[in-house]
Specification:
With 1380 residues, this protein is of the alpha+beta class. Helices cover 40% and strands 14% of the residues. The protein has 45 helices and 40 strands. It has a six-stranded antiparallel β-sheet, with no helix packed on it. Helix 17 runs parallel beside helix 20 and helix 19 packs antiparallel against helix 20. The protein is globular, with a radius of gyration of 43 Å.
C-alpha cells in the first residue's frame, strides 16, 4: 500500500494539474453515495439500503467497549482477534453457501414429495428418532450481528429468498386446501365425513413450511413476511383447521371471586385410628399415651383397668417397645413381634395439616401445560399460533426499523382478536368468531400485547381511536364478576400506551381520554355493579348467612378503581398530560363544599339538573380517589412485600384464603398467607406537580377545613326514611343523597391527608381564614357592634384536636377506613342492583298510617318467617335509662347526720334506722342505733334508693321480666344457668342465719362470689367450690379455686354468696353441666366401673370435679354416677317440628330458646348467643317436654354487664381469638390441647415466635408458658414479649430469662394496657440450641372496664344520641302499629 501511494504521487507530479483535478473528482464521485443515489430513484429505498450497509444507529455501549479496548495498556493477543474475525467471515460464507444450496434443491421439480419433505425437515434440524429433542438446534442466522455488515446483508438477502419461496409454497398449499374444503362442502351429504385439514396430503408441507418461517427475524425479514400476506395466510389456515372443540368448551372468563373473606374454615375431621398393624406401630413415639391392645396377654401389668402409660423408648428392630405405666412399673411389649400388637393409642393422634398450607409451596405455571395432541390438525393450529406469536415479538423488537404499515397491520389484527375474544364471547358467534376468540385466549392475550408495546412506534399503533374505545368498553361495560383480570390487563395496556402521546399531536384526543377515565373511575366508585364480593342481601338469605361477608382484600370494584387511580397518577407525572389533569382536578374540587354540606340539593334522576349534579358527584369522587387513593388492602395485580422474599405482584387469590404472588426476584410464584403480606403503593400522587396558585391554595384550604370540622348527623333524612311509604322498593329506602355525600366525605378525609406531605406550602394553607360555620357568629358580632372574629385553619385544627373523638381508639386507621369503605360499597351495590325488590308490606292493621319500609338493617337481621309475624310493640329503654340517671339523694335526717359525723356509713345508718323503727312510728335514738351497728359489723346493706317512695315514679320502674333477664345475663356470662335464685347476704339480719343458709345449699363444684374481703380473697372475686368442711358455722368451711387470686383458699360461710352451677365445659372438652351424655362405645370399662350404667344409658351432667377430669352424671339407672370426662360423649337433644328463626335449622338440635312475647319465635343456642336484634325475653327448653327456664334476652355473647368488670376468665377461646406460630402450624394446637405434647419450631436461631390475637374485651391478667428441662438444648432460655395493636408497630413489653430448672414460666402478670397482638419471641435456647420446644400455654384474662369495652360485631362508632333514636323508633311503632 505504501508503494502504491508513492507511485501515485510521482505520477500526479508528472501529469498536468488540471488532469489531476479531474481524476480526483472522478475518484470522489465513484466513492461517494451520489452514484448509488442516481441508480435508486426512491429516497425510501436509498435510506433502507444505507441503513443495511452502515447500520441503523450508533451503539454507545459498543463504541465504549471499542474505545476501552484501544486504550487498554495490557498485552493484547491481536492474532487471536484476527482469527476470531476470520472465523466469523468463514461462518458467513458457509451459511451463504448452505442457503444457496437449499434454494437450488427447492427449485428442482423432479424431486418426489417425500424427498422434498425430508429436505425441509433436514433444514430445520429435525431428527427422526424415538427420542424427542429437548433443545432445538440453533438457527443459521443466530449471532448474525457478529458478521461484518457486507456479509450480513448478503446472507439476509439469501434467506429472504428462502422466505419468499416459503410464502409462495404456503399460499399454493392453502389455495389447494381451500379448494378441497369447498368441494367437500358442496358434495357433503347427510352421512358425509367432516372436512379435516390434517388428512390432506398438503398437511405435512404446511407444517414444514410454517416451521421454516417460525424463527427469529431481523427487521427486513419481518417487513417482508408481513407485506407478503403471512398474516392472512395463517388466518386462512386457522379457518380451514376449524376451532378446537376441547379448547372452545373451556370458559376461562368465569373466574372465581378474587377475594379473601373474614370467615373461619371448618377443620377436617381426624382420620380413624388404626386398631392394629404397622401403621399403629409407626405412631408409637416417645411420650405417646397408650393402653392395652387387642393382643394383650400380660395380666394386670398396666394397673387397674384401663390403665394408661407412656412410651419411653423407640420401637426396636425386634418389634418390642418400652412403656412406663402410671403405676410406676416399666416393661417391654410387642408391637410387631410375632405379628402381635399389645398396645394401642389412648387418644387419637393430632391431625396433620396438608402440605399445601405451607408458604414454601411453589405454584406451578399453568401456561407450561402444553397440548400433547399429535393429530395433524392440532399440530397445524399450534404451528400457526407459534408463527403469529413469533412475528409479533419480532415486530415489537424491531419496531423502530420495521415499516410502519407492517406495524399497523399486526396491531389491527390484534385488535380484531381482542374484540372477538373479550366482547363477542358473551353472545353466539359464527365459526370465524369462535376461532378469533380462541386465538385471543391462546396467544393474543392482553398481557402478551402489553409485553410487545415497548417502543413508541407500537404504542402509537395501539393508540388508534378503535383501540382506545375497545379498551375503555371492556373496563366500563363488562361485568366485574367475569372480567376482572381482563379489565386489569386493559388498564395496564393503557398504562404502557398513553405515556407515549404528545400534547401537540394528540391534544384533543388526550383531553377526551382524561374525561373518560375520570368518568369511568367515578362510575365504578358510585355504583359497584355486579361485584361478587359485595354479596346481595337476597343471596345471603338464600344461603342462610346472618350478614354479608366481609372481605379482607380489595373488592372487584376497588381493584378496578385502584388500577384507574394508578394510571391517572402516572399520567399526572408526565409533562404532556400534567396540565390537562390539573385543569380537571381544579375544576371539580371547587364543588365539594356544596356536596358535603349538611343540607345539599337532592339528586333526582329524572331531572336534568339532577343528572348534572350526579355527574359532578362522580367526578368529585374520582378526583378525591386519585389524590387520596381508594383502598389500602391487598388486591389482584397490586404490589405486596414479604419479609423473606421481597416485593412481588399478586397474580391470584384462592378460595382457601391463600394469595398467589409472583415475586420479582424469584422465577416461580408462591403461595403466601395474607397476614404475612404488606401492601405496597405502586404510584403516589405528586403534590409537587400541582401549580400552587392562589385558587389552588384556597381550594386545599377548604378541603382541610371540611375534613377537620366534622359532620353533623342527618336526622331529618333518617326520620323521613322511617316514615316513608310501605310499597317503596329497596333502592328507594336507601337514601341516595346521603350515601353519595358519605362517599365524598370518606374520599375527602383520605385526600386531605395527602396535603400534609407537602410541607413547603402547608404553612401558607394553615394561615388561611376558615369560613366554615362563622355566619352566625358574624351576625351576632354585628348586632353587638363588635369586630368580626377570624378563625384560621390552624386554630380550627387545634380546636378539633382537643375535642373528644366519637371513635374508639382501639381500632387502627386502616381498619376504620376499610370498614367505612365496605359499608359504602355494600350500600352502593344494593342501590345499583335493579332486581330483588322487597316483598310488599301489609298495612291492614292500620289504614291511616303507613308502615315503615323494610330497611337494609331489617333485611340483614331478620328472616322471612320473622318478618311475616306481627310482634307486639317493644317497650322503650327510656325507663331503664332514667333509672340510671338518678337525682342526688335528699339530705339526711338529723339523727342520721349525727351518726355519719361519727364515722358510720350513711346507708348502714339508714338501714339500722329502718330496722329499729317500730310499727307505731317510734324513732330510735342515737344510742340504740350505735348499739345495733356495733352488734352487726358485717351487715351488707343493699342499695335502698330505688325502694324509697320518692326516688322513682311508678312509670320509671323496670319491669320484672327485664330485671330478671338482666340478672340472668350477668350470671350466664360465667356459664351459670341454674334456675334457682339464691339469697344474698343482705337478706339476713344475722351472720348465723346466713351461715346456716349457705351450709344447707352449698355443694362441691358450685360457683360462689366473695361478698366480703378475707385475707387474700378480695370482695367480688368468683371461684368454684373445691372442698367443704361442714363442721361449725364460722370456721374455715369453704375451699374454692378463686379467679382473681389465682388459686385455692379457705373462707367462711359468711364470706361467700351462692351463684349456682356453671355450664362452662370442662377444659379440653365440649361437655358442660346440663348436657345429655353417654359412655363412649370405645370405652371397654370406665375408670370407676359401670355400676348400673351401660353403653345405652343416657344421663344429664350435674357437676365437674375441681381438676376438671371427673364428671358427675345422673342416669335413670343410677344417680350421681362418676366417670372421666374423656369417657363421655354428647347426646344432643332434638326438638322435632321446631325451626330456628335465625339460621333456619330444622329441627333445632340442643337447647331451644322460645320468645315469651311472640307466639311462634324460636332460636337455637348459637343464634340466641350471637343475635341481639330481638329484644323480648326468652325461656330455655332443654329438651321436649321439659319445663321452661328463664334465659333473658338474646345477644348475651356480645354484651357485658357492668358488674363483670375486672372479672377473670380462664377459658382459652374466651381470651384468645387466634393463635399463630412461626413454623409447623400443624402442631400449634398442641400448645393448648393439654395432652402433654409440645410444639417444636423449625427455622433459624432466634427467629421463632408465637403470636396471640386477644379478644377485644380481654386484658391479660396472667400468661404462662410450660417448658421441660429434659429438652436440653431445645429449652428456651431468653424470651422477649412484644405487644401492639398492629403487627407492624409492635413494641417490646419485657424480657424473661428462663432458669434451667423452670417448668412453668410466668411471661406476663397484671397487665394494665390492652394489646390486640402479643408476640412471644424465643431469642435463645439452652446450649445455643437452634430450635425450641414449648409444652403449653395458659392465659387468664381480665374483662375490661365498660368504657373500654368493644362490641364483637364491629360497632365502633359511638352514638351520642342513641337514646333519642331508640325513643323515636318506639314512638313510630306505637303510632304506626306493629310491623307486618
Amino acid at each position: 500500500g505504501k508503494a502504491d501511494g508513492e507511485a501515485r504521487e510521482e505520477k500526479e507530479q508528472e501529469d498536468d494539474p488540471e488532469d489531476v483535478v479531474r481524476e480526483v473528482a472522478k475518484f470522489k464521485a465513484k466513492e461517494s453515495w451520489d452514484m448509488i443515489l442516481t441508480a435508486i430513484t426512491s429516497a425510501r429505498n436509498f435510506k433502507w439500503l444505507r441503513q443495511r450497509l452502515t447500520g441503523t444507529r450508533s451503539h454507545a455501549a459498543l463504541m465504549n467497549k471499542i474505545t476501552e479496548f484501544v486504550l487498554k495498556d495490557g498485552p493484547i493477543d491481536v492474532e487471536k482477534l484476527r482469527k476470531a474475525l476470520h472465523r466469523q467471515v468463514e461462518r458467513a460464507r458457509f451459511r451463504l453457501k448452505g442457503a444457496d444450496a437449499m434454494l437450488e434443491l427447492l427449485s428442482k421439480d423432479y424431486l418426489i414429495p417425500s424427498v422434498r419433505y425430508q429436505v425441509l425437515c433436514g433444514w430445520q434440524g429435525l431428527q427422526f428418532s424415538t427420542k424427542r429433542i429437548s433443545d432445538p438446534l440453533p438457527h443459521c442466522l443466530d449471532s448474525a450481528s457478529l458478521i461484518p455488515p457486507n456479509d450480513r446483508v448478503s446472507l439476509e438477502i439469501a434467506f429472504g429468498r428462502l422466505n419468499e419461496w416459503s410464502i409462495t409454497t404456503l399460499r399454493d398449499a392453502v389455495l389447494h386446501a381451500d379448494h378441497n374444503y369447498k368441494m367437500s362442502a358442496q358434495g357433503a351429504g347427510p352421512g358425509a365425513e367432516t372436512f379435516s385439514l390434517g388428512i390432506l396430503p398438503q398437511a405435512r408441507f404446511l407444517l414444514a413450511t410454517l416451521g421454516m418461517l417460525t424463527m427469529p427475524h431481523q427487521a427486513t425479514g419481518v417487513s417482508q413476511l408481513l407485506n407478503s400476506g403471512a398474516l392472512a395466510l395463517t388466518q386462512t389456515i386457522m379457518r380451514l383447521a376449524g376451532p378446537d372443540s376441547q379448547q372452545a368448551s373451556e370458559d376461562p372468563s368465569c373466574n372465581n371471586v378474587a377475594a379473601v373473606f373474614e370467615e373461619s374454615r371448618s377443620k377436617p375431621q381426624p382420620p380413624p385410628v388404626p386398631i392394629s398393624g404397622p401403621e399403629l406401630a409407626a405412631l408409637m413415639k416417645p411420650g405417646v399415651r397408650v393402653v392395652r391392645g387387642v393382643d394383650w396377654k400380660w395380666g394386670d401389668q398396666d394397673g387397674p383397668p384401663p390403665g394408661e402409660g407412656r412410651v419411653i423408648g423407640d420401637l426396636g428392630e425386634d418389634g418390642w417397645i418400652r412403656v412406663q405405666w402410671d403405676t410406676g412399673s416399666t416393661n417391654s411389649y410387642r408391637m410387631g413381634k410375632e405379628g402381635k400388637y399389645d398396645l394401642k393409642l389412648a387418644e387419637p393422634p393430632p391431625l396433620q395439616e396438608k402440605e399445601e398450607e405451607e408458604e414454601t409451596d411453589i405454584v406451578p405455571d399453568s401456561k407450561n401445560a402444553k397440548d400433547d395432541s399429535t393429530h395433524p390438525t392440532s399440530l397445524i393450529r399450534r404451528a400457526c399460533s407459534s408463527l403469529l406469536r413469533t412475528l409479533t415479538i419480532c415486530m415489537g423488537v424491531h419496531a423502530e426499523i420495521v415499516q410502519r404499515e407492517a406495524v399497523r397491520t399486526v396491531c389491527e389484527l390484534l385488535r380484531v382478536l381482542v374484540e372477538s375474544g373479550a366482547i363477542g364471547e358473551q353472545s353466539a358467534q359464527s365459526n370465524s368468531g369462535t376461532i378469533a376468540c380462541l386465538q385471543h385466549r391462546d396467544w393474543a392475550t392482553l398481557g402478551f400485547i402489553r409485553s410487545v408495546a415497548t417502543s413508541s412506534t407500537v404504542c402509537h399503533a395501539l393508540s388508534t381511536p378503535q383501540w382506545i374505545d375497545l379498551l375503555l368498553r371492556i373496563v366500563g361495560e363488562q361485568p366485574l364478576n367475569t372480567a376482572l383480570t381482563r379489565q386489569v390487563l386493559c388498564l395496564r395496556l393503557l398504562h404502557s400506551v398513553l405515556p407515549s402521546w404528545e400534547l401537540g399531536q394528540q391534544g384533543q384526543q388526550m383531553d377526551s381520554i382524561i374525561n373518560q377515565l375520570f368518568s369511568l373511575l367515578g362510575s365504578v366508585l358510585m355504583q359497584c355493579n355486579a361485584d361478587p364480593v359485595l354479596q346481595a342481601i337476597d343471596t345471603c338469605k338464600k344461603k342462610k348467612c346472618p350478614r354479608p361477608k366481609v372481605a379482607l382484600t380489595c373488592s372487584h370494584s376497588s381493584t378496578v378503581a385502584e388500577e384507574l387511580v394508578s394510571l391517572l397518577r402516572t399520567l399526572h407525572g408526565i409533562d404532556s398530560w400534567n396540565r390537562l389533569i390539573n385543569d380537571y382536578i381544579s375544576s371539580n374540587l371547587s364543588v365539594i363544599a356544596d356536596i358535603v354540606s349538611d343540607k345539599p340539593k337532592p339528586l333526582q334522576m329524572s331531572d336534568t339538573e339532577g343528572q348534572v349534579t350526579i355527574s359532578q358527584t362522580a367526578a368529585v369522587l374520582a378526583v378525591l380517589a386519585v389524590i387520596g387513593s381508594v383502598d389500602s388492602r391487598v388486591r389482584l395485580g397490586g404490589l405486596v412485600r414479604h419479609d423473606e422474599w421481597g416485593v412481588g405482584t399478586v397474580s391470584g387469590i384462592r378460595q382457601n384464603g391463600k394469595i398467589v404472588v409472583q415475586f420479582h426476584d424469584l422465577q416461580a410464584a408462591k403461595l403466601c398467607k395474607l397476614l404475612n403480606l404488606c401492601r405496597v403503593t405502586e404510584v403516589y400522587f405528586s403534590v409537587d406537580k400541582l401549580p400552587m396558585t392562589d385558587s389552588i391554595l384556597n381550594t386545599w384550604g377548604s378541603l382541610v377545613s371540611l375534613a377537620t370540622a366534622g359532620f353533623k348527623p342527618d336526622r331529618e333524612g333518617g326520620r323521613q326514611a322511617r316514615t316513608g311509604a310501605a310499597d317503596k322498593a329497596r333502592e328507594d329506602v336507601i337514601n341516595r343523597t346521603l350515601l353519595r355525600r358519605q362517599q365524598v366525605r370518606l374520599g375527602l378525609l383520605k385526600a386531605s391527608g395527602v396535603l400534609f406531605h407537602q410541607q413547603k406550602n402547608l404553612r401558607r394553607i394553615l394561615m388561611l381564614v376558615s369560613t366554615l360555620e362563622t355566619a352566625a357568629a358574624d351576625t351576632a358580632a354585628e348586632e353587638e357592634g363588635l369586630p368580626k372574629e377570624t378563625v384560621t385553619l390552624m386554630q380550627q385544627l387545634m380546636s378539633a384536636a382537643t375535642q373528644p373523638s366519637p371513635v374508639k381508639a382501639i381500632f387502627a386507621r386502616q381498619e376504620l377506613e376499610a370498614a367505612a369503605l365496605a359499608v359504602c360499597q355494600h350500600l352502593a351495590a344494593e342501590v345499583s342492583r335493579p332486581s330483588a325488590l322487597p316483598p310488599p308490606i301489609s298495612n291492614s292493621n292500620n289504614t291511616n298510617n303507613s308502615s315503615p319500609p323494610t330497611t337494609i338493617s331489617n333485611v340483614l337481621s331478620t328472616s322471612p318467617k320473622e318478618r311475616s309475624k306481627t310482634p307486639p310493640i317493644i317497650p322503650s329503654k327510656q325507663h331503664k335509662q332514667k333509672k340510671s340517671r338518678k337525682s342526688s339523694p335528699p339530705p339526711p335526717v338529723p339523727v342520721v347526720q349525727q351518726l355519719i359525723e361519727m364515722g358510720f356509713p350513711r346507708k348502714n345508718v339508714e338501714f339500722a334506722l329502718k330496722s329499729l323503727t317500730t310499727s307505731s312510728g317510734d324513732v330510735p335514738g342515737a344510742e340504740a342505733l350505735v348499739s345495733w351497728l356495733l352488734e352487726h359489723p358485717d351487715i351488707q346493706v343493699p342499695d335502698l334508693s330505688d325502694e324509697d317512695g320518692g326516688s322513682l315514679s311508678s312509670g320509671e320502674i323496670v319491669s320484672e321480666s327485664e330485671s330478671e333477664a338482666e340478672e340472668l345475663e350477668d350470671l350466664e356470662a360465667y356459664g351459670i344457668t341454674d334456675s334457682r335464685s339464691f339469697k344474698k347476704r343482705s337478706d339476713f339480719l344475722s351472720n348465723d342465719d346466713y351461715a346456716l343458709y349457705v351450709r344447707d345449699h352449698i355443694q362441691v363444684g358450685m360457683m360462689v362470689r366473695c361478698c366480703r374481703t378475707y385475707e387474700e380473697v378480695h370482695e367480688g372475686d368468683i371461684g368454684r367450690v373445691v372442698k367443704l368442711d361442714r363442721d361449725g358455722l364460722h370456721d374455715l368451711n369453704v375451699q374454692a379455686d378463686w379467679q382473681l387470686k389465682g388459686g385455692t383458699y379457705w373462707v367462711r360461710y359468711i364470706h361467700v354468696e351462692l351463684l349456682g352451677h356453671s355450664t362452662n365445659p370442662a377444659p379440653g372438652s365440649a361437655v358442660k353441666v346440663g348436657d345429655k351424655v353417654r359412655v363412649k362405645r370405645s370405652v371397654t370399662t370406665p375408670k370407676y366401673k359401670w355400676g348400673s350404667v351401660t353403653h345405652n344409658s343416657i344421663g344429664v351432667v350435674t357437676a365437674f370435679s375441681a381438676n376438671g377430669k371427673d364428671v358427675t352424671v345422673d342416669f335413670p339407672e343410677q344417680s350421681h354416677w362418676t366417670g372421666l370426662v374423656s369417657e363421655m360423649e354428647l347426646v344432643p337433644s332434638s326438638h322435632p317440628g321446631v325451626t330456628c328463626d335465625g339460621c333456619q335449622m330444622f329441627p333445632i338440635n340442643g337447647p331451644r330458646f322460645q320468645c315469651k312475647a311472640c307466639d311462634d319465635f324460636d332460636y337455637c343456642e348459637n343464634c340466641f348467643k350471637t343475635k341481639k336484634h330481638h329484644r323480648h325475653p326468652f325461656v330455655r327448653i332443654t329438651e321436649p317436654g321439659a319445663s321452661p327456664v328463664p334465659a333473658g334476652r338474646p345477644g348475651k355473647y356480645h354484651k357485658k354487664g357492668t358488674n363483670l368488670t375486672g372479672t377473670l376468665v380462664d377459658e382459652w377461646s374466651r381470651c384468645v381469638r387466634n393463635l399463630i406460630v412461626s413454623s409447623r402450624e400443624n402442631q400449634a394446637s398442641r400448645l393448648i390441647d393439654g395432652r402433654g405434647s409440645y410444639w417444636q419450631s423449625s427455622g433459624s436461631q432466634g427467629k421463632h415466635w408465637i403470636r396471640l390475637e386477644l379478644q377485644p374485651d380481654i386484658i391479660v391478667h396472667r400468661l404462662r408458658m410450660q417448658v421441660d428441662p429434659a429438652d436440653s438444648s431445645y429449652m428456651p432460655s431468653l424470651v422477649v414479649l412484644s405487644g401492639g395493636d398492629l403487627l407492624s408497630n409492635m413494641k417490646e413489653i419485657r424480657q424473661v430469662h428462663v432458669s434451667a430448672t423452670d417448668t412453668l414460666v410466668t411471661l406476663l402478670q397484671d397487665v394494665t394496657e390492652y394489646y390486640r397482638f402479643i408476640e412471644i419471641s424465643i431469642k435463645q435456647c439452652r446450649s445455643s440450641g437452634i430450635d425450641c420446644k414449648i409444652h403449653g400455654l395458659s392465659v387468664v384474662g381480665r374483662i375490661r372496664a365498660e368504657d373500654e369495652d368493644v362490641a364483637a360485631n364491629i360497632s365502633f362508632l359511638a352514638s351520642d344520641n342513641e337514646e333519642e333514636e331508640e325513643e323515636e323508633e318506639v314512638e313510630d311503632e306505637r303510632s304506626n302499629g306493629p310491623r307486618g
